[in-house]
Amino acid sequence: MKHWFSDGAFRAIVRNASYLGSSNLVSALLGLLALACAGRAMDPALFGTLVVVQAYAKSVSDFAKFQTWQFVVQFGTPALTRRDLDRFRDVAGFSFGLDLASGVIALVGGMILLPLLGHAVGIKPTDFWWALGYCTLIPTMTAATPTGILRAIDRFDLIAVQQAVTPFLRAVGSVIAYFGDLGFPGFIATWYVSSLVGDGALWWFAVRELRRQNIDRALRPGLFGVARRIQGAWDFVWTTNFAHSIWSARNAGSNVLVGIMLGPTAAGLFKVALTFFDAAGTPASLMQKSFYPEIRRLDPASDRPWKLGLRSAALAGGLGVLVALLVIVVGKPLIASVFGHEYLESYALLQVMSAALVVSMAGFPLESLLYIAGRQRAALVAQALAAVLYALLLIALTHYVGIMGAAIAYFGGQCLEAFFSLVPTLTAYRRRHALSYYAPGEAGP
């Protein structure tokens, strides 16, 4: 481990993950406070409706969302390293234009589909207008350009600050709604405003940092004209979009599927378990966010990014074992004290899902390594196969086993994705000497 930390890139990954971790720890606690207030102020069915409304808007935005932050990191980071500001402006402009277009399409599509899908996912007619209004957040949810800019510029500290804004406002508003007995309207309004302000803060940080770096005209939206100057742009964004759409269907869409199969009450229980799972898996997600920009600055033909991936996986996997044990020990009393005894059934789900923590945390570098190797399509295929099998497992097991089947299916889905991603990653490593540091269309020095 001492030798690992002598590597500046590994130290940067851990440092940036620590920045994000400092805010995510607070954010997780604030998020639990907000959910606890909502769970105690409303009965499980109404709480489940609140969860489904939020999950519907997020699912639509995730489905239509292009992973523009990955595009900015993949194509913009080498440009910044060479101080090729014109190239970076093209990258940021194309990313911004894509965010605008996808946000508008997702908003219209989500509103059109809501009357058709509302009853199926558990949204009652009396709550329809609340859900329709919540859909207006979809355009801000789809935008990922500011995150990519801040990661490419290595300002993870600003991202850490921004990530605490939404949970803080949501927690404060939920406490007010709880003690003010504002009911369902008060909580859904709180979640709406907190999300809107948090997304706005991210854009403000990105614009301010661009000005500080003397990078003007970087957020002039463009699509087809700019894309012609960035070879491989459309291939990369479409591939990562499909991959993320599949990922969202497996994660945020899980609540919707559970709601369809078992009703809003089961969706609420599964949401509680997922909340603890996501909080426990925070170290890996934070390392992934700092890992990808860091290895994009390295030559994939060398051993260095691959060794970084192995070291990061070992560190995250070890943390996963410790976190899983901690979740099993403190999960039950924590759920009882935070949400109430009526939600204790979610602890049984969490016990099964905690085993998936080790798998998901140890496997976090695989997707990023495939991207730097130009194997984004292999990552897409891996996620698609795992998601299809997971959806089939979720539907079958919830039908025959009930809510516990959802937890078993979630564990199986994590294992399948790790396996399907590992195979092409090993192939890319064996062929690494044929790889190039420069993205398609870029010339070497």
Q: What is this structure's SSE topology?
A:
Blueprint: H1 8-41, H2 44-64, H3 68-81, H4 85-121, H5 128-134, H6 138-142, H7 145-152, H8 156-179, H9 183-212, H10 224-227, H11 233-250, H12 252-262, H13 264-280, H14 282-296, H15 304-338, H16 345-353, H17 355-362, H18 365-372, H19 376-400, H20 403-430
Helix pairs in contact: 1-8, 1-14, 1-15, 2-4, 2-9, 2-11, 2-12, 2-13, 3-4, 3-7, 7-9, 8-9, 11-19, 12-13, 12-19, 13-16, 14-15, 14-18, 15-16, 15-17, 16-20, 17-20, 18-20, 19-20
The rounded distance between the terminal residues' Cα atoms is 34 Å
Q: How much of the polypeptide forms β-strand, as a percent range? A: under 5%
Radius of gyration: 21 Å
Helical run tally: 20
The strand count comes to 0
- Structural class comes to mainly alpha
What is the H-and-E element order? HHHHHHHHHHHHHHHHHHHH
Shape: globular
Helix content: over 70%
Short description:
The protein is built from 20 helices and no strands.
Structure, described:
This protein is mainly alpha-helical and 445 residues long. The protein has one domain. Helices cover 80% and strands 0% of the residues. The chain contains 20 helices and no strands. The chain has helices at 8-41, 44-64, 68-81, 85-121, 128-134, 138-142, 145-152, 156-179, 183-212, 224-227, 233-250, 252-262, 264-280, 282-296, 304-338, 345-353, 355-362, 365-372, 376-400, 403-430. α15 (304-338) runs antiparallel to α16. The longest helix is centred in the first third of the chain and has 37 residues, at 85-121.
